[in-house]
Amino acid sequence: MQLRGPVVEVGDIRTVETSRGTSDLAEVRMRPDSGQAEAVTVTLWGKWTETTDYLDPGMELLVTNVEEDEFRGEIQYATQRESMVVVEPGFLVDVTDVRSWVQCPRMYYLNKLSGLELAYPVVKGTIVHEVFGDLLRGRDLDDAIDERVAEAGLELGLLDKDPEAVAAEVRDHASAIEGWLRQGTLTDTDGAASAADSSERGFSPVENEWRSEQTLVSETYGLKGRADAVRRGGPVELKTGKNTKREPRFQDKIQAACYALLLGEQAVADGGAETATDGGQRSVPDGDHADEAPDTGTLLYTKNAAVERTEETGDLSPAKEFSLGPGLLKFVVRTRNEIAAMEHDVSVPTGFEADAKCEYCFEQDTCMAVSGRLDQESKAGQVGSPIPEDEREYFDRFYRAIEAERRAVHREYTKLWRQSGEERAEDDRALIDLEPIGQTERDGGRWELRAQGTSAVSKIREGDVVLASDGHPVRGRTELARVEELGEEVVVTTDEPVELRRLDVYPSEIGTDRMLTALHDAVLKQSPEKKAVLFGRREPEFGEDDTVYIDNNEAQNEAVSLAVRAEDVALIHGPPGTGKTYTLARTVRALVERGERVLLTAFTNRAVDNAIEALEDQGFEDIVRMGTETGVRPDMQAYRLPDSGDPQELAGRLRDASVVAATTASCGSTVMREQSFDVALVDEAGQLTEPATLAAVSLADKSVLVGDHQQLPPVVQAADDDEGGAAAPLQTSLFERLIEQYPDAGVMLGRQYRMSQRIQAFASREFYDGQLRPATGEVASQRIDDLAGVETDALPPNLRDSVAFVDPDGQARGNTNPVEAAAVVGTVQSYVDAGVPPEEIGVIAPYRAQVAEINKRAPAGVTVDTVDRFQGSSKAVIVVSFVATDTLDGPIFEDYRRINVALTRAKKALVLVGDADALGTDPVYGRMVEWAR
Ligand SMILES: Nc1ncnc2c1ncn2[C@@H]1O[C@H](COP(=O)(O)OP(=O)(O)OP(=O)(O)O)[C@@H](O)[C@H]1O
After folding, report:
1. What ipTM describes this predicted complex?
2. Where is the AAA+ ATPase domain (predicted)?
């Protein structure tokens, strides 16, 4: 049996005599059942006592296979031979991190801080891994190499590598894989027939013997990772280095051992599946999964096949098998515990923990530089001088904030198994009970999986990377999948086929990883002068220029001028519909005309595409768009740098572009981190966390931030009270901080081109100090009957004013209000009946459940969505559903800025549908009801 729950008290290590000699023990008090049960004592024996060195009350502990004993009427627990002790099992450590921690704990920390850099060995390693996967899937070697080299074209071009030479090198590595695969299949007696068969077809895997890359998450051991391959249930790790010793390298064994643990747990779950009749809703048997772990691991050192036998001595066979004994698996768990414990108190490893020799370490320079900047102890020593106190404080504060956010992402992971499929679906984080209707292998070996479409709502959108499973994302068979279609059919693509029964939101850490590297790059790598404004050491400076850029809007003209004159930073505050995008495009042109290279970036792909469209409208097309095919709008694909191609050509296009457009998230990619710009223009800056903004800002000499801090705030997953509120610094955007700190560096666009006078009045008064005005008389006086074929008289009397309030006297039931939904649909229908095209009508509701409720009956063509999905767009008619009847809770009420966004989407007519009494309990909503009535 297992015990899992918070630690109450940690005892000291004692040495005792037992029948088998002397042994160490330590007693720990904990509350099992995740803290629900009374505290019990569990005795940790032998090496597990080390755990107490870093175990603190409050931390979560899990002990598997405990021995239960009654002693003087109290049940006591103890570890036994098969037990594993896991510290903070909810903190999911990445397998590659366990590997680097074993090499040197400090390396783990540095990798996390500074991320990967664009370097040839890394790019080549990726290509070899991809080709390995292709070979396992039975693909032709030459085709695979050609395609994978082309896919790395941009990176190779930036590194100035010749694709032919790279292909030749990859081929050398691949020969090691091929040779070993051949050997693997031929020695397989059961598979002899298929082996003979496969030698003709290439090296296709023997059925059920192989799997290429597999995503694995362990709910017991707090580990996650992707194994390169699995052969006969055992992990196979590919290394593109050479190793002429008989044994695999220790850290490589550790990595394979981690996968073995993960596979063991999966084997247990799969075992359970044989008897499961409930569509894959298996539970993890409460046993010792390490028992099920495979006993052999394989390391494949592909460079061994490429070295000259005359020059090297030793064991040149690429494949090295080793046995995965229980001792090694326990060592892996203890190592993983060290990482989880260090992350728990956010301490920093020094490198002295390891036997590693700094003089051979290729991280030595980074190690010393980081130690120097942060005045940290490190085995490698320090270079350079420490950053000032305030910068240090800033670094620490954001470091903690980002780590708190990481924990929130981990909690999302744990929900994959803590919540049932139904709960996940209810939370909008999964689509369950899908009916698979087909699987097709696409060119290049990827699979297209299809299921019947579903009317269920979820956060999952086309283009997202999700977990596709046959019923359970952790305990079932799962693949990382890209969502291609979510309509009549659900279509996803994966590396390996899986029965498509469920999709889950994939909680990715990439956002947190990139915030951390952005923090590192901005604070530790930039010059003191470059950071002066960020840290308030001096005011932003501006040069002279009296060019007129926009002649019909003074504030817009001032904004362009400010951006052009800025030496450090300019801030453009653009309330709804004030021509932010138009001004942004004009600014880009003005900067390019001055010979500057511009990074054009925004929080969402949609905003990036809108900015490109505005540039196109202004006759400017010298743009390279970075992004994935699904992320970029179909009509903007022509600007997109292709995913593969000739290295020189791709790198040339990127280098020569005067405008590079990308989301801020992709500014943290290895390729983008290599780029430098004169100016970074950041749209939607009010929605970005400070470190996410820094990812773009650090790439340029100066920045122009465009946004509106009265609209949606940064998206942060950590709740206000998580980790003692550590994530709070992420809630204020850099835009908001700077505009408050340096009002003179900003300009507000006060004239809006969207809403009628009546519609904009409330937002102007509540959120913009009455400074928002219609840009023209025409804008101010627009009405619904300006639309061709629409008669105001055809509307019911209560909807004839351009702002209306409807109280349908409904009742909230959880996240829906069916009566209100019906009233919303009725209202929409009135507009359609009066001649308004459905495409001109939008409905905003606070919850996806209410969105679904309305969507069921709304006329086709009407857009129904949550407010977060509406930011940045507008419609002639907007209907807002508030759902709440008794108390005002829910996302729309948490922050007044959401209501600002909702109310400012409408151009000609706005209808609020809600409970007047409930809304009246809050002063702002009360005033809103008064205004709308
Ligand atoms: N100076 C101007 N002269 C004429 N039309 C303008 C001017 N500025 C903006 N517009 C027009 O006003 C409309 C709104 O502009 P734009 O889309 O740039 O607004 P926005 O502030 O980006 O909107 P959002 O709040 O959705 O981000 C567009 O049709 C745009 O062409």
Report:
1. 0.97
2. 566-740
